[in-house]
Fold this sequence. Notes:
Elements: H1 8-21, E1 29-33, H2 36-45, E2 49-52, H3 57-61, H4 64-83
Parallel strand pairs: 1-2
Helix pairs in contact: 1-2
Amino acid sequence: MDDIGEDGIELIKNLKITLQNYQYDAKIITASIRIIGHLEQAAIAGADIATIRGSLLPKLWKHPLTDNGITQFLEDWKNMLNKS
């Protein structure tokens, strides 16, 4: 929707409200998510499923603080084993 000038996130919000109002048993699927920000906004707006680019997948769990935390944990673990 964003590609044709529509607000895709607003559409998700409106669909979610409509499904809840009428108690429809349906899922909202977002398609062609290209950036993490849109994925986050879609989830907050109520999307149940998202299709994303393959290149986006690793970025979901890659974060400098997480990387540093893992490195520090592995170093601490190695040091603990060496003390035994």
